[in-house]
Amino acid sequence: MPVEVSVRADFKKVERMFRGMRRVSVRRAASRAINRVAGTVKTRIKRSISKQINIKQKLIKEKISIKKARKNNLVALVRGTGRGFLLHEYKVKKTKTGVKYTAFGKTTFIKSAFRRKDRGGEWWKRIPNKTISAVPGVGGRFYSKTTYNGPKGSLVSRLPIRRLYGAPIPAAMITKETNKVLQKTVRERWRIEFKRTMKLELRKYK
User: Fold this and answer.
1) Residue 121 — left, alpha, or beta (φ > 0 → left; ψ -120 to 50 → alpha)?
2) How far lies 74's CA from each of 5, 92, 120, in Å?
3) pLDDT digits (tens, 9 = 90+) for 115-171
4) C-alpha span between 18 and 106 (Å, rounded)
5) Strand runs (DSSP E) across 32-186, as ranges?
6) Residues paired with 80 in a beta bridge
7) Is 198 exposed, middle or buried (0-12, 13-18, 19+ CB in 10 A)?
């Protein structure tokens, strides 16, 4: 499920500052400024999430998008979507009985995990039969039993397995650390960006 954080400004206060100008011009400048701030928010949130879940920034980039503000809707949305990345993208430590990785300052241990060289080194885990919930090969996370040739040509069943994922991006969008980055960026950048975009609008009146 996607999670969104909003970037907005107090437009009534802005209108009072430029009371003599056309309302549409002020709103256009405000929307452009908000979108510039949202771009900075995206960059800084990406950097923050990278530290929180211990994963490379370039992988996070494709999971975060911006819905831009318009002059009739002065709110930009920075959206984080998708479940976690495949576990092998994280800094994983192998143990005798499984693997562990750290995200949000906490270490998660996954028992009975194993690495599949035939799947690019992905981490998988054997699961009980009762947890099967998807048809094999149809994009489901869970896979049915597999069989292999046993002694004297007999078929032997293996436990079903599933691919392992790490911390989800939406969860990282609502942490205290992420909110601090959002609030600080808006405070720092809004006045600067609005001043720049307003100058461009004022030039049209000369």
Assistant:
1) left
2) 14, 42, 45
3) 777 666 777 776 665 444 443 333 333 333 444 445 555 544 455 667 788 888 888
4) 49
5) 64-67, 75-80, 93-94, 98-103, 106-111, 113-116, 122-126, 147-149, 155-157, 161-163
6) 3, 64
7) buried
